[in-house]
Write a structure and sequence with these properties.
GO molecular function, one term: lipopolysaccharide binding
Bound molecules: 2-acetamido-2-deoxy-beta-D-glucopyranose
Helix content: 25-40%
Organism: Xenopus laevis (African clawed frog)
Strand content: 15-25%
Oligomer: single chain
Membrane topology: Lipid-anchor; GPI-anchor
Largest sheet: 18 strands, mixed
Distance between the termini: 144 Å
Protein name: Monocyte differentiation antigen CD14
CATH architecture of one domain: Alpha-Beta Horseshoe
Main location: membrane
Length: 467
Amino acid sequence: MTMRIPFSLFLIITQKILWANGGCSYNKDLRHCSCSLVDLTNVMSIVSCIQASSLEFQGGRFVDTEEYSLHNVEMEQVLAMIHLPLSKVVFANVVISEEFLFSFLNWVQRIQINMLAFVNTTFEGKSNSQPMVGSPPQILSLQVINGSSYPLFDRVSDFTGLRSWIFKLEELILTKSQLSGIPCNTSRQFKVLSSLDLSENLLQDENVSSSFCQGAFPNIKTLKLHHNYLINFDTICQTLNKENQLKHLDLSRNNLSSAAASLCEWQPSLTLLNLSDTGLKELHHILPRNCEILDLSYNKLYALNLSLPSLRELHLSHNLFTTISSIGIFPLLQILAIDGNPMKTLQRGQLQYFRHMSTVRADNIPYICSCSLVHDINEMTMSSLTFQQWPDGYVCDSPDSLKGQRVSEVELSFFECHKPLLSVLICIVSLLVVVAVVVCIHKFHQSKKTRLQNLQRSNVCNMQFQT
Ligand SMILES: *[C@@H]1O[C@H](CO)[C@@H](O)[C@H](O)[C@H]1NC(C)=O
Ligand SMILES: *[C@@H]1O[C@H](CO)[C@@H](O)[C@H](O)[C@H]1NC(C)=O
Ligand SMILES: *[C@@H]1O[C@H](CO)[C@@H](O)[C@H](O)[C@H]1NC(C)=O
Ligand SMILES: *[C@@H]1O[C@H](CO)[C@@H](O)[C@H](O)[C@H]1NC(C)=O
Ligand SMILES: *[C@@H]1O[C@H](CO)[C@@H](O)[C@H](O)[C@H]1NC(C)=O
Ligand SMILES: *[C@@H]1O[C@H](CO)[C@@H](O)[C@H](O)[C@H]1NC(C)=O
Ligand SMILES: *[C@@H]1O[C@H](CO)[C@@H](O)[C@H](O)[C@H]1NC(C)=O
């Protein structure tokens, strides 16, 4: 691919590169460009990256309006050379003003960017809300991870410039940013947003209710609320069951333990529910009836009685189950994780009960390595079932002689495994011996008697003969 760089630009570039302070380096194999720019004086080194598919700007401050207006023309010219879509543009550990953001968005207007990300970013200043000239940037996904004083969502109605594109986003990730809500007015404008991640923020139940007001996020399919301050399952259900396209919901790492039984019904669209690490001791809530993937791992559950006709994946890792018999009716279950539970044994019948089972994870369990357990597990691992973490994760806890040994390596002798049978055999043999001895003694006595009689008789004869 040949490129034509205007001569004037070429001069600028070479000069800038000579005085470069930091700058960009291009990894041809990954098509990744990494720039560390203290400021914009060496921004032209980005020319070396016009073949990149991902761009990363590390460190620096982009706040001085005059400085980047100086580079406006150069920037536009360089970026105009990028014709391929960019998979990702990342700003990390930077301080950015809203005005810079506007300029940047204007520069990249013609470039399709799948994801624009800001990591560890401090947003400064207040924009004068100049409307964007030309068409809005073609950005599908916006990520803000650990952004501080991010003002866009509190004041987004002020930003006539931003709304032309921000409300066209399909994915929004806004995590670790001390967010405690999105104004209802703003939520309603995300007409095409299908994936929203608000994990690791300060959201409480009321904040979710107000953010997901009637008409908010009408197209939402995936919602992650991992690690916030949610406490009431029922409130969350009442709020979110208005979202009739919601397919995936992640509520993991919230404290839902205090909630009483909920009779709230979820939308039929919901197929994945993540309740991992939510302090659950019992489960009296109504679960989504079309649920295909249910994650209940890292709770305090010891029993379940569910009936989920579409369930394919059930995660029960790190709970308090001592058995998996009668956990529920799941006719389509394919994947079951029960690792880290205080069970002692795993019976073939318990797993065979689920006819479509293909993958089991049952490591990290204090197995009692009885003959039947060792036999069953070893046999099952050779069948069509896949045992995850086999063989390293499957270790005997007792008897003492086998403690610490892998189940796959346990070799129990014929004698040890057939103790009952052998005992019966020994009993029978002993009995036979006893009977034989008794018979023998009896016979011996009898023959002794007859011999004596014979002897007496012969003696009599002898005497008669002698006489
Ligand atoms: C968040 O970003 C700030 C800089 O903006 C940084 O100092 C801090 O270490 C980051 N925190 C985390 C948890 O990443
Ligand atoms: C964000 O900050 C944290 C903590 O300082 C650091 O560990 C992480 O690597 C930073 N992220 C990026 C993409 O630089
Ligand atoms: C979030 O909810 C808490 C508790 O109800 C409330 O005090 C706070 O103001 C709410 N925050 C927002 C942004 O609505
Ligand atoms: C919501 O938007 C309407 C009209 O756009 C406006 O009148 C109202 O004040 C807004 N409400 C809030 C809480 O911003
Ligand atoms: C549920 O969330 C946890 C994190 O909280 C994650 O590790 C796990 O993979 C999620 N489960 C599913 C099935 O996505
Ligand atoms: C969860 O909430 C319950 C009751 O509301 C409380 O007793 C418990 O300490 C909380 N657990 C955590 C880990 O915060
Ligand atoms: C399980 O639930 C069904 C109804 O959903 C009920 O009839 C049955 O008695 C329950 N079983 C146990 C062991 O609680």
